[in-house]
Amino acid sequence: MTPDPKPVRRVKARTRLDAEASFCFKLSVMQSGRCIVCGGFSMYAHHCVTRAAIRKAGYGEDIRWDARNGVPLCDRCHR
Description:
By secondary structure, the chain is an alpha+beta fold. The chain contains 3 helices and 2 strands.
C-alpha cells in the first residue's frame, strides 16, 4: 500500500511571493545607493512602519511593500 501524498502547502507559494515582493521593495528603496543617515554605502532597505504596526493599525499588507515605507541604510546605521 502506498502512502497518501502529502497535501500541497500554500505556505511555499506565499513565501515565494513575499520573497519577490521583498526583492522589488529593496530595489526601489535602494535606488540612491546611499545611506539616508550617514551617506555611506547602503546595504539594507529598512521599513519605516513595521509589520506589527501595520497589523495593529488595521492596514493592508500592501503598505509593507510600498517604497515610501522604506529608507536605505548602511550596516552601521541599521543596527
